[in-house]
């Protein structure tokens, strides 16, 4: 529900006359007007988006690591290289699942009532706005996600290295 509430709040705050006066007031209004269902709009699109997002990121990151290490699986990874590979994995996930992100956002927004379901939302976007509409917001998302994924993979690798020194598993 938090993803749906976040999107509704963003749309409300950018509208000419915002109606939500704060978090609790906003949630109360959403539930009053749309029922509990209003906080779960776009659930299918969110699951598809998040699932494909992680699948793409980990596939690309693992592929790049394997390529870099070649025949030596124990070859150390410099944090800078890990960061670059993480940024590439983040970019791949953005290009790979921005269409699902657009659908998810539409399904969760204040105009969600226009759509019967995730499939209908995608078809309406395609019919009314064309393929290009599925990549709205790609550039800003690319900047944020590449940096985010790079940082996450670097931190993960460094924490694993530290834990391996503390708890030897060999």
From TrEMBL:
It is found in: Mitochondrion membrane. Solcar repeats lie at residues 1-67, 77-162. GO terms for molecular function: citrate secondary active transmembrane transporter activity. InterPro entries: MCP_dom_sf, MCP_transmembrane, TXTP-like. Keywords: Membrane, Mitochondrion, Repeat, Transmembrane, Transmembrane helix, Transport. Its main location: mitochondrion. One of its GO terms (cellular component) is mitochondrial membrane. Mitochondrial electroneutral antiporter that exports citrate from the mitochondria into the cytosol in exchange for malate. Also able to mediate the exchange of citrate for isocitrate, phosphoenolpyruvate, cis-aconitate and to a lesser extent trans-aconitate, maleate and succinate. In the cytoplasm, citrate plays important roles in fatty acid and sterol synthesis, regulation of glycolysis, protein acetylation, and other physiopathological processes. Belongs to the mitochondrial carrier (TC 2.A.29) family. This is Citrate transport protein. It comes from Neovison vison.
């Amino acid at each position: 529900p938090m993803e749906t509430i976040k999107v509704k709040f963003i749309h409300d705050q950018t509208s000419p006359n915002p109606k939500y006066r704060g978090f609790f007031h906003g949630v109360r209004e959403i539930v009053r007007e749309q029922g509990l269902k209003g906080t779960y709009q776009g659930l299918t699109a969110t699951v598809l988006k998040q699932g494909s997002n992680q699948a793409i990121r980990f596939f690309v990151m693992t592929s790049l690591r394997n390529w870099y290490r070649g025949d030596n699986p124990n070859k150390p990874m410099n944090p800078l290289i890990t960061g670059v590979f993480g940024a590439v994995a983040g970019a791949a996930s953005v290009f790979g699942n921005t269409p699902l992100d657009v659908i998810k956002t539409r399904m969760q927004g204040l105009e969600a009532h226009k759509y019967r379901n995730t499939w209908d939302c995608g078809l309406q976007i395609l019919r009314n706005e064309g393929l290009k509409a599925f990549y709205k917001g790609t550039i800003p998302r690319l900047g944020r996600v590449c940096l985010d994924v790079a940082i996450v993979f670097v931190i993960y690798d460094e924490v694993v290295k530290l834990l391996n020194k503390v708890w030897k598993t060999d």
